[in-house]
Specification:
Two copies of one chain form a homodimer. By secondary structure, the first copy, chain A, is of the alpha+beta class. The first copy, chain A, contains eleven helices and eight strands. In chain A, strand 7 and strand 8 (213-222) form a beta hairpin. Chain A is globular and about 60 Å long. The structure holds a DNA duplex.
Chain lengths: 271, 271
DNA sequence: TTTTTAGTTCCATTATTCGGAACTTAGTTT
DNA sequence: AAACTAAGTTCCGAATAATGGAACTAAAAA
């Protein structure tokens, strides 16, 4: 599955490229890291800028990800992610558990955190929702992988970096496969400081009717304050929460759109 | 500027179309509202799904905006919007003012709120930030329009709906033009219950070196608790904050990326 | 069973994208 | 100031990818 589909694929690739810099970039920065010939890349960037997916600062010549993305993501988060419907359940879980709670979904081969709660206060959400992490060495990642059909695993596993973050990171596909079987067997996943030293967690998948993987939730702690046994005691609550979220996600029929359409409509590009 | 550029433009149009439903949609829903022939739309949707920009629930056949958008938006918000650098200033302003504070940018012809503070507590990113509103009848919208070059105005004004939200909404381009001149003259914009009854605000633009419009901030109140005179007293603080944000936005050189690239890389699509 | 509706595939035609190379700035260096 | 360099932009014939009418399949309704 090496190659991307068509012009659209290439354009989206450029978006990822811009994102990967984590800072505004000049055209030549992009050119350097891209396989496309100058003229081609230039045209792609132009198009994306026109479309508001990139923004271009005429003073500095820098490109950044465009603001249209933020708008689209707002909608994506509302209709496409589990977060809005999982919210009350997450709140309750965070209260009851008194530990940090994560809600994640798969974004391709990576884990994407779509919501997060700190024991009590809902702070810092800005910087957290939307963050991505590795799948092979996080609790939520492994919990989701464990329930994927073989066909999908075959696509996702080769994309894992198996980078050794800590001494306990699983660094081969074989080790991970063994772990995934164990997880599926016992019904939940551990993170034994595999991603960050001192950080442990217990995670369960959120499964749809056909056991399709919808997402995962976890409770996280630090080895200083707690241990796996303690976190494990929260499992019933975790599993209960996961079940409820799954129910909401599948039961729920969306309310009829209130169509605040005064604005909407096909708005076209400025220069 | 009726038409969009190329295949990429069409694909992004489809994303907007999906977003406009505010709920998961079936293919036929999209077909109904789109000008594209069935096969063409189908291919576009396929491509976007492949790319993770749309997600497709095989159980229900529904499409939603994909999770890849959330990831991209996270990056967009960090590097592309004023929000992260404006943050401490907004906090300070909200504290000092004791009123709700908005930070907005232009997304095409609309206003996009990229951050918000209620007197004290911060709000979650994707449920509030990412929201769009009309430009012609909000304080931040008018503040930004007032400083745009004529060429841009000519593109954006025809896209305004001029929908009468309240008795005091300006409902014609001519009225708005007059108002914009007044705003530019006095240096800030009022919202005299033009968008929502009982909601008033005072807004100032955030201007770059060449007076380029970077964004706008406002303090908002309700007619029950306050009045325009009172809000106006906060103007020095507002203007000061805007200036600081502008400075940060232009001065700031981004820190060298910590390149947590174990993950990144061109990750390709699952089935 | 037949009919209708929703979703998917085919493929010759057509329109877009591609990219090498030349050109234009703007910023350095001698 | 002329010569050089690097970054960004435009051109245009060749190559490729998108198009969409129509036919097909699957599933639901009559």
């Amino acid at each position: 599955m090496a190659s991307s589909d068509g012009t659209v694929g290439k354009a989206l690739e450029v978006l990822d490229l811009v994102a990967s810099f984590h800072r505004p970039v000049r055209f030549s920065d992009l050119l350097e890291r891209s396989d496309h010939p100058k003229a081609t890349l230039y045209r792609l960037v132009q198009t994306l800028t026109n479309q508001g997916m990139l923004s271009h600062d005429p003073d500095t010549g820098n490109y950044s990800l465009g603001i249209r993305l933020v708008r689209l993501a707002h909608a994506a988060w509302h209709t496409g992610s589990l977060a809005p419907r999982a919210r009350p359940h997450l709140d309750a879980l965070a209260q009851a558990a008194g530990e940090t709670v994560h809600l994640a979904q798969l974004d391709n081969a990576q884990v994407l955190y779509v919501d997060k709660r700190y024991g009590r206060d809902a702070v810092e959400m800005y910087s957290q929702a939307g963050k991505v992490g590795p799948a092979f060495c996080t609790g939520v990642g492994k919990a989701m992988l464990a329930w994927l059909p073989e066909s999908q695993l075959q696509q996702l596993l080769p994309q894992q970096s198996f980078h050794r973050f800590t001494p306990s990171t699983l660094t081969s596909e074989a080790d991970l496969r063994t772990e995934l079987l164990a997880i599926r067997d016992r019904g939940f996943a551990y993170d034994r400081e595999e991603h960050e030293p001192g950080i442990i967690c217990v995670a369960v998948p959120i499964l749809g009717p056909t056991d399709r993987v919808l997402g995962a939730i976890s409770v996280t702690g630090s080895t200083g304050r707690t241990d796996l046994k303690t976190l494990e005691a929260l499992l019933p609550k975790l599993q209960n929460t996961a079940k409820r979220i799954a129910e909401e996600a599948t039961t729920w029929t969306f309310p009829v759109p209130h169509e605040s359409l005064e604005q909407r409509e096909e708005v076209k590009c400025p220069v």
